[in-house]
Specification:
Elements lengths: L1 H4 L20 H11 L7 H9 L22 H6 L6 E5 L3 H9 L3 E6 L2 H16 L3 H9 L15 H9 L6 H16 L7 H17 L19 H5 L15 H12 L3 E5 L7 H11 L4 E5 L3 H7 L3 H9 L8 E6 L1 H4 L15 E6 H9 L6 H6 L12
Parallel strand pairs: 1-2, 1-4, 2-3, 4-5
Antiparallel strand pairs: 5-6
Helix pairs in contact: 5-12, 6-7, 6-9, 6-10, 9-10, 15-17
């Protein structure tokens, strides 16, 4: 999922890629927090996205959903290691929401090399704002009529909600189109300039979700789908390593936490390359300006592509420069079954498509300063935390 990993949800205003981070007076830190968390659609939200973004790049997938069936495996370790608060930086479509729900950061930054990912996050923001609970959100997202008693479903378990959707026919084409129109109107209020191509992309994305619904799978362009990619249903119902359902849709409180961040403009999608000269460094400066630190940096398997493209060293420098503490972690995905050797920490003997890995940012930065890594295999194995029995180094 290269495209997913090379952009990040961001809320920054800087532009240089300096390794050192400035000391910012407390008054300026308070002002920065107030600006980012205003929650008003006065153009500041769209201007911030433009200010933080880099020119868009290309990736051969829409990445409407994740292809990481293991994406929830770090959730228990995040709690055990008390990775909490601060600022979250992540990539991809909605899988980052589950990490955000577990960590409860003050704000979240999402970055992707594709402009389309930013557009998708604006669509999801609109859906959060139009919905009162998880059931209404899923209905508006996936093309179902919102039940008249939707508010009575706020305390129901996720299995009941999915069962209701499975027993409910999709709404009529005119109703689906009406929902898309309402979502698009909300997106246009965010102050992000949208051209005809953007509008067509938003229409196509929402239509795809309304058509495929819970059976949607990750797909790539110009190459056949790989066996084992999970459906949206499977991703929503996935479990952590303790067997607990752990997606952001598993509990009302988790979903409401994401909704509260969205309402205050604290989930900020940015177009940018993790190995680029601007976005990730600017995010680091913005976090420092608020007197905060990174709680988690989630990169999916973008490093695999950066390594192949000989741009990994710039990403490593960017990541090592982020403000951090002893509990700050980097979360990555490793696709061993299709792309190489099963990882030593893989579950079920490496038969799963993906393996989720975690490393402290301090350990990552120390290895970067010491000269880096000799191979991609070194990168994904050295310093990796055992998620089944997590301990800080």
């Amino acid at each position: 999922m290269r495209a997913v990993v090379r952009f990040v949800i961001v809320a920054l205003a800087g532009a240089s890629a300096s390794v050192s981070l400035p000391v910012v007076p407390a008054a300026q830190r308070v002002a920065a927090v107030g600006l980012i968390g205003s929650g008003t659609q006065d153009g500041a939200f769209g201007a911030r996205i433009a200010r933080l973004s880099e020119p868009a790049g290309y990736f051969d997938s829409d990445n409407l959903i994740s292809n990481e069936s293991s994406y929830l495996h770090p959730v228990g370790a995040l709690r055990a290691l008390r990775v909490r608060g601060g600022a979250f930086i992540g990539v991809g479509p909605d899988q980052s929401f589950s990490y955000i729900a577990a960590i409860r950061p003050r704000l979240a930054y999402l970055i992707d090399i594709r402009r389309d990912n930013m557009l998708q996050h604006l669509m999801l923001k609109a859906l959060f704002e139009r919905s009162r609970n998880r059931l209404e959100y899923l209905c508006r997202w996936l093309g179902y009529d919102v039940p008249t008693d939707v508010e009575r479903w706020s305390g129901r378990n996720l299995e009941d909600i999915i069962a209701l959707l499975d027993s409910t026919p999709p709404n009529e084409a005119s109703e689906a189109a009406s929902e898309r129109t309402a979502v698009l109107a909300r997106v246009r209020s965010y102050g992000v300039p949208l051209d005809a191509r953007d509008l067509a992309t938003l229409e196509r994305f929402h239509t795809t979700f309304q058509t495929e619904r819970l059976d949607l799978r990750f797909t790539s362009l110009n190459r056949p789908p790989r066996a084992g990619y999970p459906t949206l249903r499977e991703l929503i119902l996935e479990r952590d390593l303790t067997g607990r359902r752990a997606s952001y849709l598993a509990s009302e409180s988790d979903w409401l936490f994401i909704k509260s961040l969205q309402a205050r403009n604290l989930v900020i999608p940015v177009v940018g390359d993790l190995a680029g000269p601007h976005a990730l460094a600017a995010i680091g400066r913005d976090i420092a300006a608020q007197g905060s630190q990174v709680s988690a940096l989630y990169v999916s398997n973008v490093e695999q592509y950066l390594w192949r493209d000989d741009s990994f060293s710039q990403f490593a420098q960017n990541a090592a420069s982020l403000p951090r503490n002893s509990r700050s972690v980097l979360i990555r995905s490793y696709f061993g079954r299709n792309f190489g050797t099963p990882h030593p920490l893989a579950r079920d003997g490496g038969m799963s498509l993906s393996t989720q890995l975690m490393q402290t940012l301090t350990d990552f930065a120390a290895r970067q300063r010491a000269g880096g890594w000799g191979s991609y295999w070194d990168l994904v194995t050295l310093g990796a935390i055992d998620l089944a029995s997590p301990r800080l180094p």
